[in-house]
Amino acid sequence: MSATGRHEKATMTDLLGTSSTPSPPGTPGAAPRQRDPAAGPADLILQMKGIGKTFPGVKALADVDLDVRRGEIHAVCGENGAGKSTLMKVLSGVYPVGDYEGDILFEGRPMAFRSIRDSEAEGIVIIHQELALVPYLSIAENIFLGNEHASRGVVNWSETTRHAVALLAQVGLAENPATRVADIGVGKQQLVEIAKALSKEVKLLILDEPTAALNDDDSRKLLDLLAELRSRGITCIMISHKLNEITRVADSLTVVRDGRTIESMDVVDGAISEERIIRAMVGRDLDSRFPEREPDIGDVVLEVRDWTVHHPIDQQRKVVDGASFTVRRGEVVGIAGLMGAGRTELAMSVFGRSYGRDASGTVWKDGREIRTRTVSEAIEAGLAYVTEDRKHFGLHLQESIAKNVSLTSLAKVSSHGVVNSSEESVVAERFRREMGIKAPTVASLAGKLSGGNQQKVVLSKWIFSDPDVLILDEPTRGIDVGAKYEIYTVINALAAQGKAVVIISSELPELLGMCDRIYTLAEGRITGEVPRAEATQEVLMRHMTRTRS
Amino acid sequence: MSLTVDKQVDPADRPQSTGELVRELFRSNIRQYGMLVALGVIVVLFQVLSHGILLKPLNVTNLIQQNSYILILAIGMVIVIINGHIDLSVGSLAGFVGAAGAVLMVDHSVPWPLAVVLSLLIGAAAGAFQGFWIAYIGIPSFIVTLAGMLLFRGGTQILLKSQSKAPFPTGFQKISSGFLPEVGPSTNYHNITLLLGLLAAGSALFFEVRRRRMERRYGFPSLPTAFFAAKCALIVLVTAVFTLLLASYRGAPVVLLILGVLLLVYGFVMRTTVIGRHVYAIGGNKAAAQLSGVKNNRVTFLVFVNMGLLSALAGLVFAARLNAGTPNAGINFELEAIAAAFIGGASASGGVGTVFGAIIGGVVLGVLNNGMSLVGIGTDYQQVIKGLVLLAAVGFDVYNKKKNGA
After folding, report:
1. Three-class SS of residue A383?
2. What pLDDT sits at residue B27?
C-alpha cells in the first residue's frame, strides 16, 4: 500500500484487518436457516428444477433449482456471469421450451413457454434492466403497447386513459398518462414498466437489477412499492447486486454461481448478514491457468485524480464519482466491479472523453498533467484502450486483419499520407506469428475469425501503437480457455517490457491470477485498493458491494 | 518487441488444393468478378441483338461521352457511400454549377479556363456547406442533401431565369466533345490513342505482376499461374480491342482521359492513402474508428467537399456536351450515380466498395441504356429493367453475405 495515499487507506486496512478467514471456494459457511418444511409445496408459486442452458461453447446454466413462495420477494444474486439473467430468460420464455433442460412448475402446473406471450398469459412478467419502453410514445401508449384497448384495430382512447390513470395510481406515479416517456426520469420510467406489468394481471413479477440506474431516493421508493405489491399478493423475483437492498426488502434469497444454485436461505432481519451472502457468491471455479510472472515494478506512469463523469442523457447522475487510481511501470492493475459500477465508463472517459459528459478530474503521466480530451490526444500521450465489445467498438469486420491492425498507427507504415501496404503486411504478419492469430494470412477478413483470434487482432492493433499504458476492458470475455491463456501470456510479456497494464474484468479469479494490485469500484466510486497478497474473492466482493444506503 | 506466444498455425487453416483455392478466391471476390462477367454478357447480348451496332467505333465513342458525367459522379458517390452516407444533391449541384459556368462564360465573357476553376470552387464550397451540417452538426446526410437537392435546383433556375444559356467558347466544348490531338505519321489508326492503349495495358500488367509478387511474398492466397496468365491475357485483349475501336474512328475522347486520370487518382487515394483507409474505417465501424483516433468529423467533411468538387466537374462536362446551361440539367443524375455505386459492389451499410467497381457499375448501366435504345426498347421499359437490375445486383450481394455468414 505504498501508492499515493490519496485513497481511503484507513477504512480499507480496517476492513482487511477485520476480515474473517475466507472459507474455501465452493463450501458454504455456517448452515443457513433452512426452509420450514411445514410450509409445504402448496405454498410455492414457482418451482424451477434442474435448469440447464447451453450456448455454443458455453454452459451458462448447469443445474439451477429455484423455489419461490407465493407472495414473497425473492432475491436472486450472484456475480456477473453467474447465470442470473439467463435463468430469468428461461423463466419468461425468451428461451423457448426445448432450448433448455429441466422443468418449470408454476402454481403447481408444468409450464412449456414458447415465447414471452405464453409466460405473460400465465401472469409472469419480466422487467429487463434495459427498460423496454418506446421513448417517443406516451406513458399510456407504452403501458398498453401490444395489448391495446381496441376493437377491430381502433384504439379506445377514453378507456385507455381511464385504465392508465388507475394503474399509475397503483404504482404511485402522479403523471399525466399523455406525457411522453422520454420526458420523465429513469425512476418514473421504471414505475411505468411496473404499471405495464400490472396491466397484464401479473402474478409473478421479475425485476432484473431494478435499481441499477436509479438514485438513492428513487431506489427507496421503488423498494417500498415492491413491498406494497407484496402486501397485495404479487410475488416478486428481484435480481440485485445491492446486498443492503436485499437484506432490507427480500424475504428469501437464492445464490447462483457458475450456473448452479449454491444455496437458498430466508432473510430474517439481522439473521443473514451481507458477509454471509458474499461468502456464498464468491468462489467461482478456477477454470483458467495463469502463466507465471516475476513483477518488476517501477515508477508511477499513469495517475488519474478525482475523476467524475456524468451520464450522457441523465445528466444529474454521476456514473463515475471522484475516482482516483495509479498504475506503475511493469505493473498489472485490476479494476473489479459489478455490472453498472462504472468500470468501462471510467476507462472510456479517461480515454479521450469517449463516454459521458462533463468529465472532470486530471490525468497525469510520468508526473506531468496531460490532456486526453480527444482520442488522438490520448493515443499520443501513450494510452491505449482495448474495448470490451470487439464487434461493435473494436473491429471493422469486413476488412482484413492487416488493415485492422494498422488503423491506429497508419502513420507508422506510411509516408506523406500514402500507406506502404507491403510494410503494413510485414507488420501484420509479424503480429500474426507472434500473437498466434489463427488465420491463413493477414489478408483474411477479421469477421471470419473466432472470438479469441479477433481479440488478438484488437490487441495487436493497440500494441502496434506502442503505448505506455494499456487499459484492457474484459480482455478474455467470450473466448475459450486456451486462447485466454495466450492472452494472459501476452499481458505478462507487455508488463515485462515495462508497460503499465490495467485490466477491467468481471472474473475475479482472472484479476487474482493476473494483477499486482486491484481496485474495486462500486456505484462509480473507488471503494478499495487491495494488493495481491491480501486479495481474495471475498475481500474484493465485500468492497464491490459497498454501496451507499 | 518479443512477444512469443504460440507459433503453430493450424494446418487446417490453409486451403489445400488448387481447386479449393480458386473457389475461395472467387467466392471472396464474387462481387467484382460477377459484375465483370455480367458486363461481358450484357455487351455480347446487345452486340448480337443490335446486329453489331453496339461495338461500332462511333457508338463506343458515343457511349463514353454520354456516360462520362455519370461515371464522374459515381466515383464521388461510392466514396460517400463507403463513408456510410448518401448524397442526393449531386444532380442539382451539377446543374447549378453548369448554370454558374454559363453565366460566367456567356454573360460575363470570363475566359473559359478561369471559369472552369471558379466553377469547381463553387462546387467544392457547396460540398463544404453540406458537409458542415452532416459532419459537425450531425444532421443525417439524407436530409441535408435532400435539402441541397431542392436548394441547388432552385438556384439553377434562378441563375438561368428558367431559360437556356448558350453558346460556350469552343475550347470549353472540347472538354466533352473533343478528341485527343493526332501526331506522327499517318496510319489508319489514331497514333496517340494507340500509345495510350499500350500504356494502359502495360501499366495494368505491371500492377498485376507487382500485386502478385506481394501476394507470393506474404503467402496470401494468389491465383495459380495458369489462371494468372489467362487473366493478364484477358486484360491485354480487352484493352487492345477497346483501343483499336477508338483509334479506328477519331481517337480517344478528351473526357476519357479525364475519366482515366480520375480513376487512377481516386483508386490510389482510396486504396493506399491514410485518408482513404479512414473513410473505409468510419463506414465499416464508426465507433471503432473514433476509438482508434480517426477524426471522423473531419474525414466526413472532406468526403462531401470532394463530392461537391466532382459534382461540379460532372456539371461542366454535361454543359459542355449540351453546349448550353439549362435549368433541367442534371435531373436524376444522383439516382444513376447511386445505382452505379451499388451495382458496383458498395455496401448499403458502408465500409465496403471500390472506385473501380463503381465505374463498372456505371458502365453496366450505360451499356444497358445504350443497348436497349439500339434494340428499340422504349424508355418506359428501360427504367423497369434498370430497376430490376439494381435490385438483383444488391439482392445477390445480400444473399451471398448471408450465405457466408458475414
Report:
1. strand
2. 66
